[in-house]
Amino acid sequence: MSDRRDGAPEAALDAEAGVDEPDSGASPDGGHASTAVSTHTVRLELVDEPGQLLAALHPIADNGGNLLSIYHERGNKTPRGRIPVEVDFEATPDRFEEIVDALRSEGVNVMQAGTERYAEEVTLLLFGHLIDTDLSDTLSSIEACESASVADVSLAAPQGTEEVSSARLRLEARAGETDAALAAVRDLAAEKDLRVVEPLTGVEA
């Protein structure tokens, strides 16, 4: 897909993702929702594989979201080589929270949800047998912590992959949750017998 705001009619987008048309605020029990429907935006990070976009849209459809537009930035990959996708949809505030939770439960990396941004950055170093202990698993485990996202990683293994190596990680944490993100990294490092040097300030990643 090209880097542009998808101009397809709303009905066409809804049909593709299996989203039902809104029912004028009616709740499942026949009453009316106590809060108004409003427009929300989520920014996702997807693996560049067939079917990933549609899979990410299902939690939105399944939880009452009404798709408005999709911005698929195919030519602008994240530091981890994934594709940023911005999705606009209508939902009540309660449904919006359910949608975000559902996306994360399905393993979709939510980089931004509405006004919630990863506003704080911290750079740290990991030392140890990073390759032997599966660096990919280490990064995935950090990503599983909802407080932070791995924005960039730089690996150095001067003596070969079987010896001690180091990795510099730049984490983007939600405002006020940097301590929680660092605690998650410390726990993971202890589990894998790695050393952590944190945080590094005044360092360009």
- Kindly identify the CATH topology of the largest domain: Alpha-Beta Plaits
Please report the first level of CATH classification, the CATH class of the largest domain.
Alpha Beta
Tally of DSSP β-strands: 9
Q: Element order, helices and strands?
A: HEHEEHEEEHEEHE
The stretches of 5 or more residues where confidence is low (pLDDT under 50) are: 1-34, 201-205
Q: N-to-C terminal Cα separation, in Å?
A: 30 Å
Shape: elongated
Overall number of structural domains: 2
| Mean pLDDT over all positions | 75
Helix content: 25-40%
The major β-sheet equals: 5 strands, antiparallel
Count of helical stretches: 5
Rg to the nearest angstrom? 20 Å
What would you give as the CATH superfamily of the largest domain? ACT domain
Q: How would you describe what is shown here?
A:
By secondary structure, this protein is an alpha+beta fold. The protein has 2 domains: 10-117, Alpha-Beta Plaits, CATH 3.30.70; 120-200, ACT domain (Alpha-Beta Plaits). 27% of the residues lie in helices and 32% in strands. It has 5 helices and 9 strands; from the N terminus they run H-E-H-E-E-H-E-E-E-H-E-E-H-E. The strands form 2 sheets. The chain has a 5-stranded antiparallel beta sheet with strand order 2-3-1-4-5. The chain has a 4-stranded antiparallel beta sheet with strand order 7-8-6-9, with helices on one face. Helix 2 (52-62) runs antiparallel to helix 3. The chain starts with 9 loop residues before the first helix and ends in a 5-residue tail after the last strand. The model is unreliable at 1-34 and 201-205 (pLDDT under 50).
